[in-house]
Structures are given as structure tokens and as C-alpha cells.
Amino acid sequence: MPRHLRILATFARACLVRDMTFRGNFLLECLTSIGWMSMNLAFYLLVFTFTPEIGRGTGWSREPFFAFVATGLVINSIVQALFMPSAEELTEMIHTGGLDAVLVQPLDAQFLLSMHRVDFSAFANGLVGLGLLGWAVSRMDHAPPPVAWLLYPLFIACGVAILYGLIIMLAAATIFMGRNQSLYDFWFYLTNFSRYPAEIYAGPWGGPLRTLCTFVIPILLVVNVPARVVAMPLTDAAWASMAAAVVAAAGALVASRLVFQAALARYRSASS
Amino acid sequence: MRADAAGERGAAGRFFDRVAGGLRVWWTMLAISIEERLVYRGDFVIGTLMRFLPIVTQVFLWTAVFNATSRPDIAGYSRNDIVAYYLLTMVTRAFSSMPGLSGGIARGIRDGSVKKYLVQPVDYVAALLAARVAHKLVYYLVATLPFAGVFYVCRDYFPPAPPVGTIAAYLLSLVLSFLLGFFMEATLGMLGFWFLEVSSIIFAYMLVQYLLSGHMFPIDMLAGIPTGIGGTTVADVVRWLPFEYTAYFPAAVWLGKIRGADLARDLALEAAWVVVMAVACRIAWWRGTRRYSAFGG
User: Fold this and answer.
1) Is A61 helix (H, G, I), strand (E, B) or coil?
2) N or C end of chain B, less CB within 10 A?
């Protein structure tokens, strides 16, 4: 493991050097992602001019909801920075035969393929997310207990692990299918479901959707569980959802490993 | 006298020959583009269905908002109106969005591939328009079924069908939104003649366009936000810009939010924006090609 951390640090350093070589571009990318995020925040502010909360009696009033949004920003920025750039390169590597070079390296292929590129500009949203979290929590009616702040990073890590598992499984699909641009779009559309509190998925359609996105594809646990830890009281239901998040994170990591290995076993080189 | 008549017929004949020749070239470009687009029809179908997924979350979000508030409507929109609005903006965006157009033009300028249009007897803007019409035709061909399915499932959200005149105005606004979207993005891409890298300008445009077109929410919701200048609201400012015609306007027409004289005035404004952007696109092409230089074979 220390060897893997050392290699990860080397990858990160190389990417940082590259980013700092094109500082203007780096700054622009930071502003780009902050621009999109600001637009979404403006939309949420507009929504709260019409309603005191999202869903009657759910407790997701303005400040808790912004703590939820901030948590989503932090988790997504980690995923976008550490895993997405590498996963996006995989299709190209299959077409060009670049994957062959990875497979002969004396290092785990999944580690190398999913973490060799780090996009530091994606951390910009995460930093803004942390600021937003501080603002929202300081204005909430109840301050989160100290245990909530201990649990928060743990469940952020669980959320990241669930998304990592999903990305790896989609990357494996690339190896199976050769081309899967739509599947990557699907990833963005799927994660869209995690952008709002689970309580909004109610009624004859919402109930089954909530079950599907909690127990089959546990996308609703990604942001909901850590956000609830700081934004809501720690009830019995909250502890149950925390347990579910830990199980889902472990399950996503194991399942993604198995699917990725199966995909590599079916890989046929494109190079001559 | 007979010679004059023959001369007139000859001139008319030559004119019609030229028009027919132009139409043949345009039709050929269209046919080639359609064949290109049909290669990835499977991707098209999956992509079309996926584009409805964000709407699903919006439907649940607004349902939760209406549950939490005692208002029967927000900015004149009931919960059903808002769902119908989002679905209708999907139709508008199917007409007005031009994925890859401005980036493709700028890339062509940068890598020099645009130079073939300087020596071939093919009008660049017409070729781009033909390719885009082909793209849209194939898109509608493949997307009609998923669109019809989603609209059928969500039919209870829609008010009764509007009168024939409103439907005609709606269809006209869609065609104009296609032309407006095309000329706006083509003009944007042609900034590549002046700037080496236009991706940041394209991004800024997308940001503004997404926010002000009504894609995220009906523009009417901005009517309560003052600008601080002479009693005008943010909605008033947005209504003087062309963006709302690429998402909000057709949807609002179908839902009966814009009627009578307002409808006629806004259609005229939309047509005027199309003319303005078409002229801007032509000027950008003429002036851009005049300063353009390329090397290599």
C-alpha cells in the first residue's frame, strides 16, 4: 500500500507540474467549474424564494439544503479530480492499443487505469463546497454534535467509494463494448439523481425509484448519508442509513473489482 | 420584339437553372450528412432517452416544492404546468441546440480545413446549415418514438391542446428557434478567425444561454427580482435578449402563457433576431475569410 501511495503521489506531482505549466488554462478550468456551480446555486436560491423547504416536513429548509448541496460538491470534486480524467481516457487507450502498455506494467491495472491522471482544477468546486458547508452549518438552527464531524469524512469517503465503483464498472463496460460514450453520459445522468434529498422521491413513481437508487444502484446514499450527518439530527433511521452506506461502499468496491477483472479477461488487443 | 422575349426567356431559364443547380448541391450535401448521421443511430436512441433523466429529478423537485408551499401556482405555473414546461423545453432544445457547431467551426479555422470552402463552389454557411438540417432530421426520425412515449406517459400534466392558431405559432417559433440557434452558434464559431482559442468564449456563451434561455426554469420566475434600475425586473432584461427563444418562448406559447398581440410581437422579435444573427454570421464569414491565412497542403 505505501508503494501505491508513493506512485499516486508521483502521478499527482506530474499532473500538478503539467497544470502549472499552463496556468492560464488551469485558472480558466477552475472558473469554468465554479461558473456552472454558481448557476446551480442561483437556481436553488430562486427555488427558496418560493418555498420554505423542499418537501413538506422533511426538514430540508434553506440552510440544511445548502449543506446537502455543499456535500455533493465536495464528493463530486474528489471524484472528478481523482478518477474521472483517467476513466475518460480508457476508450482512447482501447482504440489505440495503449491499454496493452498498461497491462504489462508491474502494477495493478485497475489502480493504474483509474488513478494515473489527477485534475487539480476539479478541486475548486470542492473548496467552494467547504466554504458553503461552513456558511450553511453556521446558520442552521441546531449545530451538529462533535460526533457528526467525526462521521462526516467517513461517509464522504463512502460516497466517493460508491461513485468510484460505478465509474470502474462503466470503464469495464468500455472494455466489453469498445465504445460507450453514451454510458459515460449515463454516468452523469445517473449521478443527477443524487443531487437532491431522497425525500423528494415519493409517491407511486418516486417510491420505487428511491428503492432502486438506494438498494440496487446505491446512488442516493452517496450524498444523502453524509449530508444528513451534519444537517439533520442523528436518529435511529440515520444510523441505519449510515450502516447501509458502509455496506454499499464495500459492495461497490468488491463488485467493481470483479467486473473489471472479468472485462480484462475478455480484452483483445487493438495494437499490432 | 421576339429577340427580346427570347432573351428574357433565356435569362429566366438561366436563373432557374442556377436555382435548380443550387438546390441539387444542397440536396446532395443533405443526403451525405443524413447517411453520416445514421451510422450511429443506436447511440442516438440511447442518448435521446437519457436526456429525459434530468427532467425526472426536476419533476420530483418541483413536486416537493409545491407540497411544501400552500401556493396553487408559482409565477403563474401550477405543478403540472412546470412539468409540461420542462418537457416542452426539451422539444425546443431539440430544435435550437447545436452540439459541436461552434467548436467544429473554430477547429476548422484553426487546423485549416475550412480553406476548402474558399476554393470550392460551395457556400460554407449553406453547407453547415445542410449538415445541421440533416443532423436534426435524423435526430427527429430516431427521437420521435422516445419523445412520443415520454409525452404519452406524462399526458396528464398537459393542459388541453391549444387552438390551431396557437399550434401554428408554436411550430413557427420552433423553426425560428432552430435558425436562431444555428446562426448564433455559427457566428460564435467564426470568432475563431480572430481568436486562436474560442473554447472559453463558447463556455461563457453556454453558461449564459443555459441560465437565460429558460432551460433551468420558466423566465416568468424572474419577474419578482428587481434589477434596481427604473423598476425593471430581471425578467424584463432577459426578454430583450435572444436566448429565451431557444427554450422558453415556444414552451410558453404552447402552454398559453403568451397570447394575442404579445404573441405576434414576440414572434416578430424572434424573426428579427434570426435576421440579425444571420447577417452577423455572414459578416463574420466575409470579414474573417478576408483576414484568414493558412499554410500547408
Assistant:
1) strand
2) C
Question: pLDDT tens digits for A207-243?
Answer: 999 999 999 999 999 999 999 999 998 888 889 999 9
Q: Which residue has the cell 493558412?
A: B294
Degrees (nearest 5) of the Cα angle A26, A28, A31?
115
Contact B68 A51 (CB under 8 A): yes
Does residue B111 sit at the A interface (CB-CB below 8 Å)? no
Residue type, A200: I
Contacts for B104 with CB less than 8 Å, ≥ 6 apart? B189
Spatial contact of A210 and A224, defined as CB atoms under 8 Å apart = no
Q: How many CB pairs under 8 A join A and B?
A: 81
3-state secondary structure of A234: coil
The answer to whether the beta carbons of residues B24 and B126 sit under 8 Å apart is no
- Listed by start position, the domains of chain A span 2-265
Q: Indicate yes or no: CB of B224 within 8 angstroms of CB of A53.
A: no
**ipTM of the modeled complex:** 0.88
CB B281 within 8 A of CB B190: yes
The minimal CB distance from B57 to the residues A186, A192, A203 is found for A192
The confidence band for B258, taking pLDDT boundaries of 50, 70 and 90, is: very high
Quick check: B50 contacting A, CB < 8 Å?
A: yes
CA end-to-end distance (rounded Å), chain B = 54
- Please determine, for residue B145, whether its predicted confidence score (pLDDT) is greater than 60: yes
| Mutant choice from A56, A58, A170 vs B, greatest count of B C-beta within 10 A | A56
| Nearest-CA distance B139 → chain A (Å) | 15
Which parts of chain A sit beneath pLDDT 70?
1, 178-184, 270-272
| H/E element, B56 | helix B53-68
A8, B97, B174, B279, B283 from B186: Cα distances, Å: 43, 12, 18, 11, 12
What is the model's pTM?
A: 0.83
- Give me the count of residues in chain A: 272
- Dist. CA B280–CA B124, nearest whole Å: 15
- Give the closest-approach CA distance of A6 to chain B in angstroms: 35
On whether any CB of chain A is under 8 Å from the CB of B43, the answer is yes
The string of DSSP letters for A19-50 reads HHHTHHHHHHHHHHHHHHHHHHHHHHHHHTTT
Where do the structural domains in chain B lie, given as residue ranges?
A: 18-291
Chain B residue at shortest CA distance from A191: B54
Give the gap in angstroms from C-alpha A194 to the nearest C-alpha of chain B: 9
Strands (E), chain B: none
